[in-house]
Amino acid sequence: MLKQNLWAKMLAAMILGILTGLAVNPSTGWISYELGLIIGNWLALPGKLFLSLIQMIVVPLVFASIIQGIASNEDIEFLKKMGLRVVLYFIVTTSLAVTIGVSVAMIINPGHYLDTSGFNSYQEASLPSGVEQTLTGPGIINIPDYLVNLLPNNPLQAMVNTQMLQVVIFAVIVGIALVSTESKNSRLLLELMGSIQSVCMTVVQWAMLIAPLAVFGLLAQIMIQVGLEALLGMAAYVVTVILGLLLLLCMYCTIVFLVTRMSIVDFLRKIRPAQVLAFSTSSSAAVMPLSLQTAEEKLGVRPGISRFMIPLGTTINMDGTALYQAAAAVFLAQVFNVDLSSTALLIILVTSVGASIGSPATPGVGIVILATILTSVGIPAAGIAIILGVDRILDMSRTAMNVTGDLTASLVMNRWLENRKGDHH
Which pTM was predicted? Predict the structure, then answer.
């Protein structure tokens, strides 16, 4: 089983990594804190190499995939309809995810299980670096500028800075322009995009060779740093978020069953490798190549759709992240005794949906966005320090859901296309 199944290898590596990390954790008293950090850093080396390799290749891969996906649907009218449906679908599922997050947090009240006596110092605690400058969310007056800035005035710079949303918008514009151009003028560029995509996928296959090692090292390092105490102290909060994510998974399974009549067990079995890799790397971008492969080879999604939907979804379809942010905001409101009015809940809903749409697909970015959401409803953003300890575990869980959401969306759009083709005949 281990020889053939990547997910089984990664699952084994995950369990070994967690056990190794807990054994080497300084709290066991076997080794000093400094030595623990050194061991953790070395163990995580394959994982960091894996993530760097994938991040190196992700911009050209997203760019080429989206253009290819658009160009394979050569009918402009159809593209307009599909684009509209995709955006609507993403907005609806993200809003449902946020609603699940808020509801679960309000029913369980995880903030009331924490001993808050020592938390006054947190009110003044310093924020993680990189959060301060992002705290001013766009006000009504800035929204037009914000929208204009989505168009990259320097596409190469957007690629260098890995501003994925700008790269995606640029790719969509180029793709539509190529479809609208005479084929003799566009053919060469399309062939080039095909070559770029093949080269990227080859590099990805190399990266996948060290994936199990990467999973082992990354999880061992997290466990050495976090330890069991931090997890147990925040158990109610962790359970709340994970319960919300499981409900989100049930929603996806229902959508898949209703739209495609595929059995839920079958669906979950086919997407398992992508979910396990997402869980262990907590980066949707790192899983994107595997998601593409899963969609095309296992779920039978047409390449034209998967190559458009998966890169797009990796950038703007972050249901798991949105759910987590909403739940975390309600949790911190309970910890700091901030009463959330219906207006505040609405702001959390809108901000979570908006922020998850534009967030980069890299580990830890959820924290920066969460700071924006918290300040918009008057919760001390320094409360983030409370949840930082368990954030990585939840980051892993929500990334697995983000990836599941992208694969679900591909299946839904594929089914819609088949129906539409049926109407024509």
Answer: 0.74
Cβ-Cβ contacts under 8 Å for 294 (sequence gap 6 or more): 270, 271, 273, 274, 407
Greatest pairwise CA separation for the chain in angstroms = 71
Q: What is the pLDDT of residues 258-313, one digit of tens each?
A: 999 899 999 999 999 899 888 887 777 778 888 988 999 999 998 888 888 888 88
- Does residue 108 sit within a domain? yes
List, for residues 82-94, the tens digit of each pLDDT value. Answer: 778 888 898 899 9
> For residue 109, which phi and psi values (nearest 5 degrees)?
55, 55
Distance CA 31, CA 214 (A): 23
Tell which phi-psi region holds residue 389, choosing left (phi > 0), alpha (psi between -120 and 50) or beta.
alpha
Contact 320, 279 (CB under 8 A): no
The Cα 312–Cα 292 span in angstroms is 11
CB atoms closer than 10 angstroms to residue 245? 26
359 is written with which tokens?
């967030």
Q: Can you give the residue range of the structural domain that contains 326? A: 6-424
Alpha-carbon distance of 371 to 325, in angstroms, equals 9
Query: What CATH number corresponds to the domain at position 60?
Result: 1.10.3860.10
Q: Is residue 1 part of a domain?
A: no
Query: Is there a domain that residue 317 lies in?
Result: yes
pLDDT at 180 over 70: yes
d(C-alpha 336, C-alpha 382), whole Å:
11
Q: How many domains does the chain have?
A: 1
In a domain, 136, yes or no: yes
